[in-house]
Sequence to fold (693 residues):
Amino acid sequence: MKAFLTAALMPIIALAAVAQETEDSIATRQLQEIVIRAPKVIRKADMDVYHPSQSAVEHSRNGMQLLRNLMIPALSVNDALGTISSGGQSVQVRINGREATIEQVQQLLPETIKRVEWIDNPSLRYNGATAVLNFIVTNPTAGGSLMTYAQPALNAAWGRYRAAIKINNGNSQWGASANFKLTNRMSAYREYSEAFTMPDGTKIDRSEKPDGGYLSDTYGGLQLDYSYIKPDTTVFWVALHGYKQWPEASLYRSIMSQSAGLDNVLISDFDTRDGFTPSFTAYLEQHLPYKQLIAIDFNGSLYNGRTRRNYTEEADAGNGTALTEVSTSIKDRNQAYGVEADYIKNWAQSRFTAGVNYKANRNRSTYENLGGEIFHQRQDRLYFFGEYFQRINKVTLTAGIGAQYTSFKFKETGQGTDSWNVRPQFTFTYRPGQAHQLRLNFSSWQSPPSLAETNIVAQQVDAFQWTQGNPDIHTSQSYMLTLRYSYDIKRLSGSFGIRAFTSPDAIAPYTYWADGKLITSYENSKGLQTLSFWIAPSIEIVPGWLWLEGMVQYRAERMSGTGYKLYNHDWSGQGGLVFQHWGWQAIVMYQRAQRDLWGQKVSWGEDMSLIELEYNWKKWQFGAGVMCPFTKYDQGARSYDPYHIYEKHIRMNDYPKYYLSISYNLQWGRQRRDTRKIVNADGEVAKSSASGR
Fold:
């Protein structure tokens, strides 16, 4: 860890040596004895704009690889795993203003990406996103493009595959794309130890020795779309998408010993979910005189699927009688519909935006393990907002306010809640030049409870534990204040800052004993507060050849709820070394996941490392890589609940994991601009979950 911190902080030492430099980082091109200079990054009032260099395009074969090669400070891009994050938080991705998936970004041809907009203080119309990446893409007026990609593993049933084709004719474009991810029974195991404290004070220790298991997560998607663009007048876009989840499953087997006298107990813990989700999207944008426009978006989706869990404890390692048997099977038939309409008026130095958003969820869950008992939940959310942006010389100001109404109702019992919440936002930006920028941002948002958190059905977890949702919890409020300084000096760029976050009524789990059962339910807690500091430098060690980039973050958290007050202190971050020349690109990366406090539990994502080598030849790219070559794969959780203390680690037997990759990109005809979607209605469908350990 010390070595990692030292490497990440090296650019800060270098900063002192080059502080006198004020010239922006530039790319130069000689043309008839005239040197043309273009900024590497253009810092606008509400975003940073990155224009890909020719070298970045040449060393990329999809949108994710190009994004990685842009080396945006504080942004972690992992094409092998298909993830984009910033400071441990997920990043919303968009293509021409239209919200998109990671798979759709991976299907972008680098040659078509005109610029990338990095928005680290999203406005109210982004509806609570912590950060936004917007890819501005161009496409042919005649002709089309084809992109294919395959990444199979050599020592595991794992791989990613995708293809996309676009055909253009005048103002119209037809497109079709498909993606498939294979993860089939990859060998895994769970390290688990726990201690229960009974109501009378008796303590029971349980320790598990792994005895095998596996993980499966195979899914695929197919999309057909059509767009019509009349420049500066009308944009119309419609898409039909189908998403299929094959059994997403985990099986963990272990031999458990217990301080209460039981020993050699076989535990089998099996979870699975599968289903199909078709969705439909339609978008219309109409430009009006005097720099005005109206944009309307509709999104609807259906979900038909099942969630199952089977948990058993058997004496004598499976040769004796069953001590505990848990079987849960939930069949969902859920719907979601969303519509948003925005009005935008632009002036020379200012902008006004107003909008309204409505989302409806209609959930129908059949509990097959309860004799087919059916529960219906109705969720409605209505959101209004208005925002004004003004530029005054080197200072820009943005202020806005929104109001959200949220309603949850269970048909069978009539239980539920209604609430109104206000969402203010403010941003102050000072930019003395292209090389430096100081930004102060205050934002707020609401987090409605999930289907699992409000579901009134009691579910058994194991011999002691049960879970049951709380239909009386209400939408929680969150506030965040961020001060960030960004710099771009010669071969050194990056950012550092401080962020304060509070959610005074955060939705969190709490536990209590009732009738010999330890029940986990949910409440609007007494609040979560977080203070974090980060530094994210990027240095070009050898111009055009070698780069070092990284991010180090320190977080201090405090959370209070029924019967507890906990603190969490954590270092996290990532670092990477990138070499590219003569068509080759080599990457070495290490990542330590952020440890998050929620309720009485600290959980983390993937701690991992990566080495990857790629070679570009004409329209082809060939690559090979290995995941976790010099670190141990780990993700897990640690509980500090006095009734139930536990620690869990998920490990993979197939690591280090070796893989190959191959991609082919082809374009023909002239290029035209793709659809730029200004607003996005939320039509994401809800899904049930079976309670697990």
